[in-house]
């Protein structure tokens, strides 16, 4: 089994994920550009290096958890020249499918094994080690990465070849963005029709309107006590992150020539909601946007 892991990008997600690898007995070396990263990494039991290149030289597996495709391509571009041939590179960031495929090509060209392995489950799942990984890459790379990913997540799905993990992630989150907008809209209509939140929930949650946006992340307080609506829409899954994923889905639809009118509408709604200053709220707070829009 791989023993030495390099972890690049120790932010809100990366640091707790790397911490779980330390707890599982791996030797984890980390690097991040942020000024406070060293102290935070050392507190989690990581060895922090002065550069990303220093972190990967003795690694069997390199994991990146970075903001966007351009960061991943730049970091992989540098590090695939520094790592041992045959090292497994895993990118768990959420990035565009095209950049993910470029990253695979770049790694393979340098003799590395590569996986795209974006996650769902957020910072809570990252800390608890209960993330879901959607994985793209060869069966050889997947077989090598499985044991490592299992220490950070509770569910792995091998979705296909290069980029398939990112494709699955943005398709799933496009469903989520659209379905949340629909559920929120229905609750606002119900309010105007004098229907109680609980009554609509009791019907829709056991009928054909049933979906995760309703039954787990219900946008009104009451029916699902653990949903962010019960704590002033503290995320959860922030509006800004939902918007990022909806935009990635739109980019992918454009590149692939797929028709995506509902995704486009959801992206437009979340974009306005973010511009109004709600980027830090849970994405289910979009219900307040519908309420405000109709009162004007
Ligand atoms: P974050 O901004 O907290 O962390 C990103 C880290 O990357 C930062 O600490 C930054 O300093 C570091 N970084 C940037 N460029 C670097 C470089 N060249 N070398 C080394 N470090 C560099 O973001 P996050 O919330 O941890 O998210 C990371 C990724 O995971 C994103 O792609 C995001 O979309 C995805 N994601 C986030 C969540 C969530 O709930 N936060 C959920 C699922 C997926």
UniProtKB/TrEMBL annotation:
3-hydroxyisobutyrate dehydrogenase-like NAD-binding domain sequence ranges: 163-289
SUPFAM superfamilies for this protein: 6-phosphogluconate dehydrogenase C-terminal domain-like, NAD(P)-binding Rossmann-fold domains
Molecular functions per Gene Ontology: 3-hydroxyisobutyrate dehydrogenase activity; NAD binding; NADP binding
InterPro entries, sorted: 3-OH-isobutyrate_DH-rel_CS, 6-PGluconate_DH-like_C_sf, 6PGD_dom2, 6PGDH_NADP-bd, HIBADH, HIBADH-like_NADP-bd, HIBADH-related, NAD(P)-bd_dom_sf
Domain 6-phosphogluconate dehydrogenase NADP-binding: 4-160
Bilayer-crossing regions: none
Single Gene Ontology BP annotation: L-valine catabolic process
Designated name of the protein: 3-hydroxyisobutyrate dehydrogenase
Pathway involvement of the protein, from the record: Amino-acid degradation; L-valine degradation
Keywords, in A-Z order: Branched-chain amino acid catabolism, NAD, Oxidoreductase
Family of the protein in this entry: Belongs to the HIBADH-related family.
UniProt enzyme class: oxidoreductase
EC number from the UniProt entry: 1.1.1.31
């Amino acid at each position: 089994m791989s023993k030495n892991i390099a972890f690049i990008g120790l932010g809100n997600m990366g640091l707790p994920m790397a911490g779980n690898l330390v707890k599982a007995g791996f030797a984890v070396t980390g690097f991040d550009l942020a000024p406070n990263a060293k102290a935070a990494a050392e507190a989690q039991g990581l060895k922090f290096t002065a550069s990303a290149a220093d972190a990967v030289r003795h690694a069997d597996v390199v994991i990146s958890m970075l903001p966007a495709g351009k960061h991943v391509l730049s970091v992989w571009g540098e590090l695939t020249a520094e790592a041992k041939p045959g090292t497994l590179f895993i990118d768990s960031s959420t990035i565009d499918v095209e950049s993910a495929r470029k990253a695979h090509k770049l790694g393979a060209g340098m003799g590395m094994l590569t996986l795209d392995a974006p996650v769902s489950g957020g910072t809570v799942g990252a800390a608890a080690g209960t993330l879901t990984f959607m994985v793209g890459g060869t069966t050889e790379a997947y077989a090598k990465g499985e044991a490592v990913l299992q220490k950070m997540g509770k569910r792995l799905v091998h979705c296909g070849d290069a980029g398939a993990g990112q494709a699955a992630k943005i398709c799933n989150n496009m469903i989520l963005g659209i379905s949340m907008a629909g559920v929120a809209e229905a609750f606002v209509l119900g309010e105007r029709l004098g229907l109680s939140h609980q009554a609509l929930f009791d019907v829709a949650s056991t009928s054909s309107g049933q979906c995760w946006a309703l039954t787990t992340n219900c946008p009104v307080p009451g029916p699902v006590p653990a949903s962010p609506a019960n704590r002033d829409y503290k995320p959860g899954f922030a509006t800004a992150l939902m918007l990022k994923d909806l935009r990635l889905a739109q980019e992918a639809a454009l590149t692939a020539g797929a028709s995506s009118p509902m995704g486009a509408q959801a992206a437009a709604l979340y974009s306005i909601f973010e511009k109004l200053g709600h980027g830090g709220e849970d994405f289910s707070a979009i219900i307040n946007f519908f309420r405000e829009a109709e009162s004007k």
